[in-house]
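Sequence only, no structure available. Ideas?
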Amino acid sequence: QVQLVESGGGLVQAGGSLKLSCAASGNIFRRNAMGWYRQAPGKERELVAIISGGGSTYYADSVKGRFAISRDNAKNTAYLQMNSLKPEDTAMYYCAACNRLEEICLSPRFGLGVWSNWGQGTQVTVSS
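Reply:
I predicted one. Tokens follow.
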């Protein structure tokens, strides 16, 4: 079981940057793919980015070129660097862990069901 705690959210102006962190407990962090999702009020939770245990990544089209996901296995922490933020990036951001095969975790077509552990979320608000 992996427990996840997000931090780093806040209020930022459009064009600004934030870096989110997701601290994981448990000694199996390095075997899990880590993902970032977001959910705006009245909308469904949507995928932002994924990083596998081996470092392969996937990004939603809406954040490609602006966001970067990374991980530090020594610190049991995953990160989401968000640059050139837009008001439409405003949402609660959640990190999640996937302990399935890498090709399953990295494929968005399998949906939320492959993500077995979730954090409580951190709010990101981008003002125009």
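The chain has one helix and eleven strands.
Hope that gets you unstuck.
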